[in-house]
Write a structure and sequence with these properties.
The protein has about 180 residues and is of the alpha+beta class. The protein folds into 2 domains: about 120 residues, no CATH class; about 30 residues, no CATH class. It is built from 5 helices and 8 strands; from the N terminus they run βββββαβββαααα. The chain has a 3-stranded antiparallel sheet with strand order 1-4-5. It has a 3-stranded antiparallel sheet with strand order 6-7-8. A two-stranded antiparallel sheet has the order 2-3. Strand 2 and strand 3 form a beta hairpin. The radius of gyration is 33 Å and the shape is elongated.
Amino acid sequence: MSLKINNVRQIDEGGINPKTELFEQPMWELTLETDEKRILGKPKMEEYLSKAYEKTVHHFKRRISVLTSGSRITQWSIVFTDYDDALLATSEFCDKLYKGHQRKDEEKYNKLDEELTSKRGSVSEAIAKARERSQRAEITTKDDKEKVDTFRNQVIEEGNKEAYRELIRRDSAPHPDAKGYEETK
């Protein structure tokens, strides 16, 4: 349900919860931005609202107000375990459900990431450090790149065989600071 929720409709007669396969009354039908419909029971609705507010929902209820003009307004009353409450319009209620679902997914992915990190341990840390180093600093300086590019272009354009032989000789020769292997007994 990473899609935005456009509307919530309470089904007063209830129905079979698709997850638990048990009868629940009432149920809620969420209309997503793709016009797909999802049916949720009370536990999931309360879970998503609790995640959105970052405190536990005691209960919530739909309120329908009839104005003097005859028009009807649907509002959602949410009561938390500390008996604080919130009154939301349907669009705000949809946003809270969406945010709660996102937070639930983030927590799930963070938990999986922690499990994988604990299993892989130092290997994943080493990979993360290598990625960080590669992003923040270049190994080859700009001056070195210019020298290499200049020499490469000189060899390619001029067909300078002596420069090419010098390059091969330097690559095959040992490093000038190399001391070789130490003898061990």
